[in-house]
UniProtKB/TrEMBL annotation:
Keywords, in A-Z order: Membrane, Mitochondrion, Mitochondrion inner membrane, Repeat, Transit peptide, Transmembrane, Transmembrane helix, Transport
Similarity section: Belongs to the mitochondrial carrier (TC 2.A.29) family.
Cellular compartments annotated: Mitochondrion inner membrane
Main location: mitochondrion
Topology with respect to the bilayer: Multi-pass membrane protein
GO CC entries: mitochondrial inner membrane
Species of provenance: Coccomyxa viridis
InterPro entries: MCP_dom_sf, MCP_transmembrane, SLC25A3/Pic2/Mir1-like
GO molecular function, one term: phosphate transmembrane transporter activity
Solcar repeat boundaries on the chain: 81-165, 178-262, 279-358
Pfam families noted in UniProt: Mito_carr
Entry protein name: Mitochondrial phosphate carrier protein 3, mitochondrial
One GO BP annotation of this record: mitochondrial phosphate ion transmembrane transport
Length: 373
């Protein structure tokens, strides 16, 4: 049997036959590999596009924890980093804004539950402050922050995903022709899942805010709620919550997208591409506030149902409708809710689009952004 060295040409294994350039490159590569292996992995963080927006993983290997200038990579539209950015933007926009308007929410819920005691917005604030102090006006802020942060993640992140998915399914021509239907379908699909995450926190929040002496907040309110109504009771209000939030979100996104287009077409004296980032964010806030007014009107009857169901263990949808009547369901507490939801929705779109601009993405609406190939 022939020796192995006789079967393989010597130029493939003999150092003498290797080119000096190849040997030099191999040596340099080996030295670089040894240097990298000597550095703990934590100092060589993977450089995802979104991470690089926040200067993560850009440190030189020999100077750990000291940031160095790094070339910012553009986030590719509809990529994993794109949806991650939209999800985080949703957390910030919904979690922060709902927590900020907790005093309005406390008064609104009490006006819905006990209209004889809380007869107006002014008296509602006065009674709440007198009975509970300033702390009474921010009661339930922790479940509000957690619940609406979870909801915001699903609402905005999944909306961008479903909107793109449905547009691809419809094709370019139908997507342009029926864009409002895509806005409605995408937002409804997103909110369906977002509400499943919100529902337990909303149940505890309403109970803490509207039942005197029930609990001080989340830490004692959640265990007490589960003890009284069981874990399944946390989702007792999921159907009216869908009834409130899905129409609200459909109006919020479809009205916003169409209002942005109308503002750029009829109000703003120049195309979106020629507007500064601050001007674009101003359009986002204005369109969001307008959308919020419509959202409040459409979703208000279901909002009354949610408040009543979560404050009264024995209440049912039928008993609440019989007690209040359809007119009261649609109007009780509505003026305050218009102020609250209009401001809330305007701020949400402003924060969401400001975050998108911060990470290098275009603001929402007006025209479909060009897709990177």
């Amino acid at each position: 049997m022939a020796a192995l060295s006789q079967l393989i040409p010597s130029r493939l294994y003999s150092p003498d036959e290797l080119s000096p350039a190849l040997l030099s490159a191999a040596s340099a590569f080996g030295a670089q590999t040894q240097r990298e292996a000597a550095v703990p992995p934590v100092f060589r963080m993977a450089g995802s596009t979104l991470a690089q927006k926040f200067r993560m993983g850009s440190q030189p290997d020999n100077v750990p924890f000291i940031p160095a200038p790094a070339e910012k990579k553009k986030i590719k539209l509809y990529s994993r980093d794109f949806y991650a950015a939209c999800t985080l933007g949703g957390v910030l926009s919904c979690g922060l804004t709902h927590t900020a308007v907790t005093p309005l929410d406390v008064v609104k819920c009490n006006m819905q539950i006990d209209p004889l005691k809380y007869k107006s917005i002014a008296s509602g604030f006065a009674i709440t402050a007198r009975e509970g102090g300033l702390g009474g006006l921010v009661k339930g802020w922790v479940p509000t922050l957690i619940g609406y942060s979870i909801q915001g993640a699903g609402k905005f992140g999944l909306y961008e995903y479903f909107k793109k998915t449905y547009a691809d399914m419809a094709g370019p021509e139908n997507a342009a022709k029926y864009q409002t239907l895509l806005f409605l379908a995408g937002s409804a699909s997103a909110e369906f899942f977002a509400d499943i995450g919100l529902c337990p926190w909303e149940a505890v929040k309403v109970k803490v805010q509207t039942v005197p002496g029930f609990a001080k907040g989340l830490s004692d309110g959640m265990p007490k709620f589960i003890q009284q109504e069981g874990v399944a009771g946390l989702w007792k209000g999921i159907t009216p919550l869908w009834g409130r939030q899905i129409p609200y979100t459909m109006m919020k996104f479809a009205c916003f997208e169409n209002t942005v287009q109308a503002l750029y077409k009829y109000v703003v004296p120049k195309p979106k591409a020629e507007c500064s980032k601050n001007e674009q964010l101003g359009v986002s806030f204005a369109a969001g506030y307008i959308a919020g007014v419509f959202c409040a009107v459409v979703s208000h009857p279901a909002d009354n149902l949610v408040s009543k169901l979560n404050s009264n263990k024995s209440a049912t949808i039928g008993s609440i409708v019989n007690e209040m009547g359809w007119v009261a369901l649609a109007t009780r507490g509505l003026p305050l809710r218009i102020v609250m939801i209009g401001t809330l929705t305007g701020l949400q779109w402003g924060i969401y689009d400001a975050f998108k601009v911060y990470v290098g993405l275009p603001t929402t609406g007006s025209a479909p952004p060009p897709e990177d190939n």
